[in-house]
Design a protein that fits this description.
Elements: H1 2-25, E1 28-30, H2 31-38, H3 42-54, E2 58-61, E3 64-67, H4 84-97, E4 103-107, H5 111-119, E5 126-130, H6 133-141, E6 147-149, E7 153-155, E8 160-162, H7 164-171, E9 175-180, E10 184-186, E11 190-193, H8 196-207, E12 209-215, E13 227-230, E14 237-241, H9 246-253, E15 258-262
Parallel strand pairs: 4-5, 4-9, 5-6, 9-12, 12-14, 14-15
Antiparallel strand pairs: 1-3, 2-3, 7-8, 10-11, 11-13
């Protein structure tokens, strides 16, 4: 029975991701078009649309759904399928940049950093330090022996622990390499995320690091969201994919940031 429940939840998440993808291509989509494209009943699509509207991810009107705008933060369960190939390519590139031997790495939460943990499944010489519940669980599931997770207040949308308790933990450790994901990165705006408390917590970890690697897929290069977690010039190495805006990459290079670009076929 639990596997059936998980399968149903996974299918629902897949439908919701597909609905949001349709709204990226078209500002407004009739529900009947969603029903036809996704092979689901009208009642099922209606429930999905109601749920997305309640999360502020779209605007529901009679018989249609409209795009809510670009500023809404996607819940972590709806981010997994987006730009998967780019994130996998970035993850393997990040893994290749880490020194061999005992090394402490700090990881912010996010789907790209989760892929990085998967790419490090063979590196049992590492100590992983994170405030992300999902990253800690992923690391534990693949047999990582040294995982330090902070305390703090749980943000349901990102599954990250934030606030003074999380910051206190980071202040007590020394991080060899901070691997940072974000919702936007630009030369002017720096590394940004959707939540101010989350940004402050991650900033504390970054300040404890000897080296900072930003792992950011190309769709986020040039984007600026609500709260800054680091200045762009604080980053030693940016790893992104070839969909990133070349002009923004030029501006980032001018700040002295090393940039590694990986090829990633579109999903």
């Amino acid at each position: 029975m639990p596997s059936d429940t998980h399968s149903t939840s996974s299918r629902r998440n897949d439908r919701m991701v597909a609905i949001l993808a349709m709204l990226r291509d078209r500002d407004e989509v009739p529900l009947r078009d969603m029903t036809s494209a996704l092979g689901a009943s009208a009642a099922t699509i209606r429930r999905d649309v109601v749920s997305l509207a309640e999360q502020g991810l779209l605007i529901r009107s009679h018989g249609t759904a409209r795009r809510a705008g670009t500023g809404a933060e996607l819940p972590v369960n709806l981010r997994d399928g987006r730009r998967r190939r780019a994130k996998e390519a970035i993850a393997h590139a990040v893994a290749s940049e880490l020194p061999i031997g005992r090394h402490a790495i700090g990881l912010t939460g996010g789907t790209t950093t989760t892929e990085i943990v998967r790419a490090l499944h063979h590196r049992h010489d590492l100590t992983l330090i994170t405030n992300s519940v999902s990253i800690a669980l992923e690391a534990a599931s693949q047999g990582q022996q040294r995982v330090l997770i902070t305390g703090g207040v749980l943000r349901p949308s990102s599954l990250e622990l934030v606030g003074s308790l999380a910051e206190s933990t980071f202040k007590q450790v020394n991080v060899g390499t901070a691997i940072v994901g974000c919702d936007g990165m630009s030369a002017e705006g720096g590394l940004t995320t959707h939540d101010g408390i989350e940004a402050a917590t991650n900033h504390t970890m970054i300040k404890r690091a000897a080296r900072i690697i930003a792992a950011v897929d190309g769709s986020k290069i040039g984007r600026v969201t609500l709260a800054k977690l680091a200045e762009a010039k604080d980053v030693d190495l940016l790893i992104t994919d070839d969909s990133a805006d070349p002009e923004e990459l030029t501006r980032l290079r001018a700040l002295g940031i090393a940039i590694r670009i990986v090829h990633a076929p579109l999903d």
